[in-house]
Every structure is written in structure tokens, then in C-alpha cells.
Specification:
The complex is a heterodimer of chains A (about 270) and B (about 280).
Chain A: H1 2-5, H2 12-34, H3 37-60, E1 64-65, E2 75-76, H4 83-114, H5 120-142, H6 146-182, H7 188-204, H8 206-211, H9 226-261, H10 268-272
Antiparallel strand pairs in A: 1-2
Helix pairs in contact in A: 4-5, 5-6, 7-9
Chain B: H1 2-6, H2 10-22, H3 37-48, E1 54-60, H4 66-82, E2 86-91, H5 96-109, E3 120-125, H6 131-140, H7 142-146, E4 172-177, H8 181-193, E5 197-201, H9 206-215, E6 220-223, H10 224-235, H11 240-280
Parallel strand pairs in B: 1-2, 1-4, 2-3, 4-5, 5-6
The chains are: A mainly alpha (about 270), B alpha/beta (about 280).
């Protein structure tokens, strides 16, 4: 049954499906707007529960051989064929949320600019950057000539990439300053941390590795090479601690996921909207 | 003097860091370093793949981590091209990943006689929030889930996708990232489809990934720029990582030097104070 709905459509029929999808989405949004405020909570709860139930049942129910065009050895249950349309559907839903995010950003910064509020210059910078990038990208798509490609390169490589890289690079300056001021041997624990940090750093850089490269590559002395010490610290001392933390995080995530799935979670979507 | 050594103005530190990072770019000092076990394993994994094998390559990074992730992506793509492997690029963590990975593949394709659509394809960016669902679907049906490439072409019609139907048809999954995006690959693609997986990650994220290396879920890993540097030496090329290697070393040595300076001054001051209080008593 699912293949009659979820299959690629090409040609003119594709545009009919586009139009149908838009009309359907508008209808759904319109109907959702009609739902009284106190019942919206239950709409969200139901959608969350059904979505979670689908993946839970698909994972837990017994599987059997289900030959498909893509895979003659395919194993699954009656829900498995819907994984692909569900996967594509969630991409569409999440893409729509990106669109909502853009609308929200435009509203927030637009209002601030109109009211000439605090930091409105930053809002203006955002709106100009957004409009420019959008315009140049659309131009490049519609008229893919050298001029438009160069404009795009100028904004993407020249501005966005450089600014993004610069923002991240600034961290290095803070690290140098913070390490110099904070790493002090004031207690045995702090001394241990400092020695460990220095050993890991020396094992992580070429010059550090070369400093102990005179040591043999096998035998007992081999263990004193910086890269071996670094590996030992990371894999034998650090990894087990992180593993323990990850176990805790995993159990915590499971509990949170269950609370969200069953509508027990407290938060704006589950309480304030009600 | 000892007080000054403990409280140097941060602007001097910043200036020293700029010099430590920038100056080495003007000198070419070749340094041969042994590859770590995780780098070696990744190299061996790619070497063991027969020509024509299909690799799914996640480019989950943006310009923020370009310093580490770009050399890693470059060296791995060059190795795949040298080995005549087919590959598909995909990005989840950041929309920039799509364009950055495309640039790298286009940069090297003529050197290795590669053609887009025939030897490699870029599936583009998919929303990170839906990564798990997308990968679950991809494991079932690659062509329908991937849909179109970044130029709008149906991936099912591209020669590069010949014989690729489900996640089990991948020979290797690689994720180059500064995020935890690789964990979704392990949970929803590597594990269920039993496909080997490798990782290229920023040095700050690497400690978390060692767990997956030890469990065998990751077949190899590049740890920061140093990992890419080691890999370039394995391939016998001088790329971005080799050029950045000396800067990386100098920046780390500066940090170590400043820590030792601050601590040395503090310990000497303490000794002086002890002596002074001993003299008084």
C-alpha cells in the first residue's frame, strides 16, 4: 500500500503533487489554528506519541524475511517499509522548522530595528547579510554565470568562512591566557593535572614526538615515548572515565526520551500552552 | 620581577601566539613522525578496499573547525581517489559542509581523473535534527532516501550509484566532524548494516571517540591536525597538515612554556617568602 503513495514522481505530475502538498499543508495549518489553545497541548502530545510509537514498535516487533526491490535479503516487520517515507518526512518537517527559524529571526530583528532598540545596528547587519546571501545564492542558481559565481564566492569564502574561522580561532588566545594563569601547582591534584596536560600536549605535536624519538620502538623504554604516554593517558585513563559518563548520559537520555514520549515532560510545549 | 612573570599582560601572550602560529608558515622544516595506531588502522582499512568499493563520506564540519577538519577531509579524499574508490558526500551538522566538501572533491578530481556523478557524488545537506531517521531510512533504501544530489539529479540515475541499494552495500563509512554526529552513524548505520566505520575529528572531541575505537565500532581515527599530518606522511604527500604541523607544535610549546614560566615564578616566590619568614623568626 505504501508504495502507491511514496514513490518518485517526475515530469508535469511532480508540479501537481507540489501544488497538492502546499494546499494540504495550508489546510493542516489552518485547521491547527482553529484548535482551541487548551487542546493544542494534546495535538502535540498525540503527534509525539505516534511518532515515538512507530519507531519503538518497528524496532521491537519480530522481523522476518521481506524481499524488496532494493534488497532481496531484507529483514523486517510490517512497519519496516514505512521507515523510508518516515525518514524523508522528518527531513521535510525539520526543514520547515528551519524556515520557521528564519521567520522568527526576521521578526525579532525587524522589530528591534523599527523600534531603534538597543543594539539595533547588529540587527541591521544581520538583515543586510541575510538579504545579500539570499540574493546572491538565488542569482547563482537562476543564472549560473561567472559573475554570479564570483559574488557567491566573495560572500561565502571571503566573508562567511573567514568570519566563522576567526570566531573559532579566538578561542586559542583565551586558552593560552587561561592556561598561563590557571594552571598552577597549588595542590597535588592540580600538579597531577598539569603534568598530564603537558604530557598529552607533547604527545600531540610533531616536535614533542621528535623529542623522544631517540628511544627504541620496542621494549620497555619504548613506553616513555611521548606519543605512547599520550595514547596510554587517553585510552587507559581517560576513555574509561568518559565511558562511565556516557553510560550515565545514556540512561539520562533514555529517561528524558520516555518522559517526552509519554507527555510527562514539563516545559513550554507541555504546560504553558495548555 | 617574579610577580611580573606570574602576571604578564595578556596582550603579550596574544602577540606571542600570533608569532608562534604565523612564523612557521614561512619555513619548511620537514619532520618525520611515526603514525599512531588509530591513524595506521584507518590507512590500512582504506588500503584494503578493492577499487570500485563505495564509501559514504560525512562532511560534518564548518569553517569554524576548518583548521583541523579540512586537512583530514583532503587527505582522506586524496587517498580514496588514489585507490579508485567511489564515494558519496553528505553533510548533517552544518549546511556549509556541503559546499566545503564539494570544493575539496572538485579541487582534486582532475588530478586523479575523477568525474562527478561517475566516480563521486554529493548528496548535499540534510537537517541535523533528523539525522537518525534519515540514516535508518538510508540503511533500508539508499537511492530513494538520498533522492537527489546537489545539482538536482536523481541519484538513482547516476553511474556512481551502480550496485548500491542498501546500507550493506557500503564498504566503509567515514565521518569527518567537530561534533558528535558520528555517534548517529554508529547507532543507525554502522551497527545495523555491519559496515566498517572511521572517523576524523577535532583533537578536543577525540578523547570521547577512543571508546568506540576500543570497542571496534570505529576501525580507525584521525585525531586533529596531527592525525592528518601523520596520514599525509603515510601517503607521501605534503599537504595542508604538513604545513600546519610546525605552527601547531610552536603554539603548544608556547602554552607549555608559559605554564612553566608562571609556575616557576610562583615556586621561586614562595621559596623567597619562606626564607624571609625564616630570617624574621
Amino acid at each position: 500500500m505504501h508504495s502507491s503513495f511514496f514513490h518518485p514522481v517526475t515530469g508535469i505530475a511532480r508540479f501537481a503533487w507540489y501544488a497538492g502538498a502546499v494546499a494540504f499543508s495550508v489546510l493542516i495549518i489552518f485547521l491547527l489554528q482553529l484548535v482551541p489553545q487548551r487542546f493544542r497541548r494534546y495535538v502535540i502530545l498525540s503527534a509525539t506519541f505516534v511518532g515515538g510509537l512507530f519507531y519503538a514498535l518497528e524496532f521491537l516487533l519480530p522481523v522476518h524475511l521481506m524481499r524488496t526491490k532494493a534488497d532481496p535479503l531484507h529483514m523486517g516487520n510490517f512497519l519496516t517499509p514505512y521507515l523510508v517515507p518516515f525518514g524523508v518526512f522528518t527531513q521535510i518537517v525539520f526543514a520547515a522548522t528551519v524556515g520557521l527559524g528564519v521567520i522568527n529571526m526576521l521578526q525579532v530583528h525587524g522589530k528591534r530595528l523599527i523600534r531603534r532598540g538597543k543594539d539595533s545596528a547588529f540587527s541591521l547587519a544581520f538583515l543586510i547579510s541575510f538579504a545579500l546571501m539570499l540574493l546572491v545564492t538565488l542569482l547563482k542558481k537562476v543564472h549560473p554565470n561567472a559573475i554570479n559565481a564570483n559574488y557567491y564566492r566573495l560572500l561565502f569564502d571571503g566573508a562567511l568562512q573567514s568570519l566563522d574561522a576567526t570566531m573559532f580561532s579566538v578561542v586559542a588566545f583565551y586558552i593560552v591566557s587561561a592556561a598561563y594563569r590557571a594552571f598552577r601547582v597549588r595542590s597535588p591534584e592540580a600538579t597531577m593535572l598539569l603534568v598530564t596536560a603537558i604530557l598529552v600536549m607533547l604527545g600531540q605535536i610533531a616536535i614533542g614526538i621528535l623529542l623522544t624519538s631517540f628511544l627504541p620502538k620496542t621494549g620497555v623504554w619504548h613506553n616513555l615515548r611521548f606519543e605512547i604516554i599520550r595514547d596510554w593517558i587517553l585510552r587507559k585513563a581517560n576513555a574509561p572515565s568518559i565511558r562511565a559518563i556516557q553510560f550515565g548520559l545514556g540512561i539520562g537520555s533514555l529517561a528524558v526520551a520516555l518522559r517526552i514520549w509519554l507527555g510527562l515532560e514539563r516545559g513550554s510545549y507541555f504546560e504553558n500552552q495548555g | 620581577m617574579l610577580k611580573v612573570m606570574q602576571n604578564l599582560d595578556r596582550r603579550y601572550l596574544y602577540a606571542l601566539l600570533i608569532l608562534a602560529v604565523a612564523l612557521p608558515f614561512f619555513f619548511n622544516v620537514p619532520m618525520t613522525v611515526p603514525a599512531t595506531q588509530s591513524t595506521e588502522s584507518l590507512y590500512d582499512k582504506i588500503e584494503s578496499l578493492p577499487a570500485g568499493s563505495f564509501v559514504l563520506f560525512g562532511g560534518d564540519w564548518s569553517a569554524g573547525t576548518r583548521g583541523e577538519n579540512r586537512p583530514q577531509s583532503e587527505v582522506l579524499i586524496r587517498h580514496m581517489m588514489r585507490k579508485k574508490l567511489r564515494f558519496a558526500l553528505i553533510a548533517f551538522a552544518d549546511p556549509q559542509g556541503k559546499t566545503l566538501m564539494q570544493d575539496i572533491a572538485v579541487q582534486f578530481q582532475s588530478q586523479y581523473g575523477y568525474r562527478e556523478g561517475v566516480d563521486w557524488v554529493n548528496w548535499g545537506w540534510r537537517v541535523a535534527s533528523g539525522q537518525e531517521n534519515f540514516l535508518k531510512a538510508l540503511a533500508q533504501d539508499v537511492l530513494t532516501t538520498a533522492g537527489t544530489d546537489i545539482h538536482g539529479a536523481q541519484v538513482a540515475t547516476l553511474p556512481v550509484m551502480q550496485g548500491i541499494r542498501t546500507g550493506r552495500d557500503f564498504s566503509l563509512i567515514i565521518d569527518v566532524t567537530g561534533t558528535a554526529s558520528y555517534q548517529a552513524y554508529i547507532q543507525f548505520l554502522q551497527g545495523p548494516c555491519k559496515v566498517p566505520m572511521a572517523l576524523g575529528t577535532t583533537a578536543v572531541m577525540a578523547p570521547e571517540a577512543f571508546n568506540y575505537l576500543d570497542s571496534g565500532q570505529l576501525s580507525g581515527m584521525l585525531n586533529g591536525v596531527q592525525g592528518a599530518y601523520e596520514y599525509e606522511q603515510k601517503l607521501g604527500i605534503e599537504g595542508r597538515a604538513t604545513r600546519a604541523g610546525l605552527s601547531l607544535s610552536f603554539a603548544h610549546l608556547l602554552i607549555i612554556g608559559m605554564i612553566l614560566l608562571g609556575n616557576g615564578a610562583m615556586l621561586m616566590e614562595r621559596r623567597q617568602q619562606k626564607r624571609a619568614s625564616g630570617d624574621r623568626s
